[in-house]
Amino acid sequence: MFFCYKYISDTLALSLTILPHIPPFSSVNSGDRKIFTMDVRRRTVKPFYPSEHIASGETLKPHNQDSSVKASDALPLPLYLTNGLFFTMFFSVMYFLLHRWREKIRNGIPLHVLNFSELVAMVSLIASVIYLLGFFGIGFVQSFVSKGNNDSWDVEDESPEQFIDRTVTPPPVRPNIPMKSVLVAEKTGQIITPFSSEDDEVVIKSVVEGRIPSYSLESKLGDCKRAAFIRKEALQRSSGKSLEGLPLDGFDYESILGQCCEMPIGYIQIPVGIAGPLLLNGKEFSVPMATTEGCLVASTNRGCKAIYVSGGATSVLFRDAMTRAPVVRFGSAKRAAELKFFVEDPINFETLSVVFNKSSRFARLQNIQCAIAGKNLYMRFSCSTGDAMGMNMVSKGVQNVLDYLQNEYPDMDIIGISGNYCSDKKPAAVNWIEGRGKSVVCEAIIKEEVVKKVLKTEVATLVELNMLKNLTGSAMAGALGGFNAHASNIVSAVYLATGQDPAQNIESSHCITMMEAVNDGKDLHISVTMPSIEVGTVGGGTQLASQSACLNLLGVKGANREAPGSNARLLATIVAGSVLAGELSLMSAISAGQLVKSHMKYNRSCKDVTK
User: Fold this and answer.
1) Torsions phi, psi of 8, nearest 5?
2) Could you confirm whether 501 is annotated as catalytic?
3) SUPFAM superfamilies, alphabetically (predicted)?
4) Active site residue 599
5) Is there a contact between 343 and 412 (Cβ–Cβ < 8 Å)?
6) Which listed residue (63, 340, 456, 599) is catalytic?
7) Catalytic residue selected from 118, 293, 344, 458
8) Is 425 a catalytic residue?
9) pTM
10) Closest by alpha carbon to 508, among 565, 576, 557?
11) What is the pLDDT of residues 192-202, one digit of tens each?
């Protein structure tokens, strides 16, 4: 008993010293500055000398100076025995106390009346709880605290002076300062960039010589911009080609880490123009378009003007479902057909919906369309995805369903979570017929005088051109969803400006443009039907500053909390309305014979690029 009491007392005393013994911040005097190096996982600051490691090709890491007291030091035993002892003590005393409390309740004895054994049990319980929290709990909480920081430390929320430990004797000054160092001027408290060209030169040489992988620079250095600079310089030296025209400054490289682009060396400049106002469903929108094609924004703007003065356009979203189609294989075609019947049974669909919908708050399974090819079964899952474009969301739901079906059909072999029956980033008849993403139709009636004065053409001429070009000509070419003049031009420009996936321009540009004379042949009715517009207002490139600003201009930035999914649906209708304006203007230019003249004037540069 004395032995247990002694170690329980020691554990209590030791546990109470864990939090105050956070490792202090080491400092290095350098003129009027103090140099600190941070340890991201323990949120401490330590001296760190990279040249000693870079030259040998070792991973950059701080010197280990962590001498703090740990919970595992409570007993002079191996770690597994210490953990086992405290786990056993915790559960034993809990069982003992619960048993005693139950007897007291039955006998009417107050719970706060304790005998010696119960008092020892309470002390043991407290000691074991403190030990377990100190050993497991603190690290668990710190892992969540540092999880979203990507091994970087935001020092803007803290005062630099509070990190200075003036009681610690400073170590000798080292000439090289690492990436995760913070220079703090004692007089002003200003944080200073601590890197020199000598430091960069050492890292660049190591990358060129292959001792430091280029892809690991962000994690080793902790500074995304510096990593991009070093990677760019190393690439220029190893390739012998200049990247002088590729800008590096003026971009937040932290914002793309782990979500948008790997191994960046700069960014591409694409100008953004504004077309509009586009009067759509009674509201005006200024449409941002990122493009390098002359005349495109001007032409779309002319179409917006023609729509505006004619009373505006109307759009309707008639379907909203992102798709993913895995492919599975059985030993026989009969077994594949059995799963098809099982999945398409309405009773079983309800169960599959519950399994699918657990993957997200916004994912809601709508239907499953199956197709058989021999022993192989393709299941096309369609679901709503809120304001996200939804590819990752639907993929998670599909994986849940596949895991469930694997238990029901153990002989099912999952070949791939995507079997191209979706179909993503490629022209496909299934998208043209069944739709994917948002399906939108947009229409407008353009008055006769507007056709003549703004578009410089005639209604009858436009109707004939549309039939022979967009309908007959596309059919002759064997077009798949390409019954339009240039829908992909507008879709690509709006996608780039608003942070959408530009590769999904392929199916998103599926469009059929219709024109006919109305009101006794005086006015023009024009419409575009686009069955697979794939857009989102959260996730991916929509989080970048420039793209987020363009979404904000349209009033669809981020998720709509009141009506989830409404922002993405509105963006899809704006895309369709912009395509309507672009189709109207280009077709008018072709019918009036102005296309070549306009491009010669606005889409040709006299600059000698060879100089």
Assistant:
1) -65, -45
2) yes
3) NAD-binding domain of HMG-CoA reductase, Substrate-binding domain of HMG-CoA reductase
4) yes
5) no
6) 599
7) 293
8) yes
9) 0.69
10) 576
11) 344 557 889 99
